[in-house]
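This part of the workshop introduces the protein records we will be handling. A record pairs a protein's sequence with a compact description of its fold. Comparing a sequence with its tokens is the quickest way to learn the format. The record below serves as our worked example for the rest of this section:
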Amino acid sequence: MKEIKVQDKIKVFVSSRCGQQNYDTVRTKVKSLIEGTTLATVYLFEDGTASTQSAQQEYLYAVDDSDICLFLIDNADGVSDAVLREINRAKGQEKKSLYLFCKERQKKATQIQNELMGAKGARYSEINRFDDFILKGYTSLINDITTVYKNYCKGRLADREFENNTLSIIEMEAVASESLDKQLLKGIDQSKEYMSSFIFKHSREKNETSKLDISCKEFLQVLLGDKQIREFNTSLLLEELKNKQSKSLYQVVEFRWMAIQSYFSNDLKSSRQYMQQALESAYTNLLPKWFINDILIDLRNLNIVENVIENRYTLASKEQIELDKSNEVLFYPVLDRLEKEYNQKLIEQNFKNKTESHYITHFGNNIDSYTDLITNVFVVALFNGSLTQILRTIDRLKSMAFSLCEQYGDWKFRILLLKLSMINGGSKDNDRIISTFNEILGKMNATDAISIYEMASSIPLLHKKLITKFEIFKQLGYYFSDNDYHKISKELIEEINKWIYDDNKIINLGDYIFKLFQSNYLRLDNTEIVNVCCKIFQTKCRRWYNNVFKLIAFMGIINVNDEIVKELISEFIKIINNDEEKNNCYELEGAIISVCKSNTNLTKELGQIVSEKMPKFYSTTYSLEVLTHTIEGSGMHIQRYLEDIRKQNETQGLNGVYLGYTDNPYLIIINIIRNNNLDLDCRLTNDIEIVIMDTLLSPKQTVTAKINAIQLLIFLKNFKFKANYDFNKVVNDLVENEEIVEMGFVDAYLEKRSKLSLKFNFLLLKLCFGAVSDEQVLGIISVYSNQDDSEKIESLKAITNLMDNNYSNIIDERKLYIFVQYVLGFCSTKSHDIRFNAVKALLKICTQKTSKVIMTQLSKIMDIDSAPIKFLILNDISNLTQYNEEIAALILQKAKVDNHFLVRAKALKILSI
């Protein structure tokens, strides 16, 4: 006889201790008997497959998905932590549950059994022998199923879905059940269609809708910036929720929605008060623990926001303490399951992206399924009045947008991802996204930029809205049209001035303000920026003095009104004369150097004060950076840095102690020679040689120090001194001691330079002296294909250093083409840092013979790459023009119409010369 297949089987969760043979055997036999009826399927944890979820998540989600739970408990053994979690989960979701207690070894009832007296949805029986678990478990389940069916046939069971609301449609105990899907998540097609159109403009059929659907769609519009909260009819939503919820549930949800309305109206105090009333009402109405925990989470998060606004810091709020006390794992019935399904779809899609054939074409069929799941989660959150889960809709959309960017090259997805990141992410998140999909800024235009800025209006809290505007302006300031830029910059400067004079200013805003200035000083009115800096000093906002000094050190005071410069210098002098303030300003020296170099006429008094109050700084760094140098003076500074290197060589590795240094004296010596076009005498050259040898022949010196020493030696070899110094003996000695040279401590905590980088730099040194074959160059370069990004960047920096001082015109042609091929391979990589260093290297190895292939690549880069990379190319345009006027002209033409303000300005300046 053909087996009868039941399509929709009952899902049974069997729970007992795991890992003990007697329990495992019993569960397996119970499963076999139950499934033999073909009416049910049984979940056993040990039958599961490998999962990305933790074991705890796996079995608790299985409880969520079950229709009935069967718990097998031996009084003598009690329950394990895992079984207790399953029991609590089943109770929290009001799962129908059967409990069997074995009293073979212990007659006394357990506390679990005592607490089941009168429990809803739970029945228990006692057995005398452990083996009776098998038959009793099976018969208890079958009898319960038949009893329920008999009661249904006799009209003793009510189906709430078809009762015409004589009872509440969704009582609290049903919120966690599958019935919510059937009742609540139907008829929301308008909300789903709006969510889909927000992601990707396309129409969908709207077959089923409802009053709740209309409210859901309208609040989605509020959340995503298409409507203001004042346009949303909260009363209409509450009226619909009242018809769908039990009285006890509605009493709490009403308070929660008043809190949500207050939050989106920027009334944080009222929001917290309403949410507190919701919590008290939830306790009074004996609502489930998971629901109370959800309110506690809302209150905790509101408290965090209040702390930011009021400049407070607390280790843990009372709500967090209450959550920590809870024995239950935090979960959210239905919503957790829906979110798990959504995340699983993203994981599966990512797996397909990574493993399927490159010849497969996608048409975006998965977008609707993503948006449907996100909409379902949103509706559940809206139904329960969960502020945190409503706000997390942005996070869910952001993760979906990221997945779509990984899968498709559509420009709209990248803009969407950046929008969502800007309004709901931190500065680091934005930087990472731009770095990962770095063509975003290469293709950005004024329309895209303003659309992202305008979306900030959807943020309900004013301080968060302002932070987002600062962040968007920081990242995209150079892409706005002139009109938009003028309007936005004026608005933000006004807000910054208000912030300065606000006695209760939000401290958190300060860092964003200075980052905004630093990122936009080449387009903003610098007088306006320095004026803000002066106000910081005048209002004694000492917390931000170092931010001001760091900003001034970065931008200087070029194009600043003389009167404002005088004000700034006056503030500098006040601080220099105040020893306490001066000692706390660790960025002061850099600012002094920048100001004095920017305007020598107005800074004479400042220089005099520095010489009197900061004599050590004046005689060293200030003298080196600001004062006019003679050959003797420059030599004195070089000797000072040589002495620093000698001390490092003496102390590094002593008694097993290794030190990291923030400065690079080798590079400083290079800059002194290059910037002053020095012609070293034999004595000074000999001193440099000795120090370099000491560094490279020290087995205890760090890899970083040795690389720096090699790069200094390569620079000296290729720099055009009047005298022709012979470094052959030095290099010969190093080659004879190659094993020691390539021996060095890897300072992994400080830099990612490795012994491979040291070996590569040493090979380039030998190449300068004709001691390397083509095969050796190819051999070490081939290794880099399997190295991480940091190694590749170090190799490109080494090549750039080698090719400095026109060495590309001297090097053997075959080796030059090896380097050209190697560097060109990095021009299309995803890493911006690699591409940046690759372009620097290309510009150094561009010669008359290599110019066509290199300049063609540079011209392509001008189409879509970042502004910093385009600036590298434009800064070298005069040299490129000598090689190929036609391609250089095209590069300038592309720059002239670029979307980035500074790239356009740079091109126009070049063309006007």
Observations:
- The longest strand covers residues 68-74.
- The first helix runs from residue 21 to 35.
- Strands lie at 10-15, 40-43, 68-74, 96-102, 122-127.
- The mean pLDDT is 87.
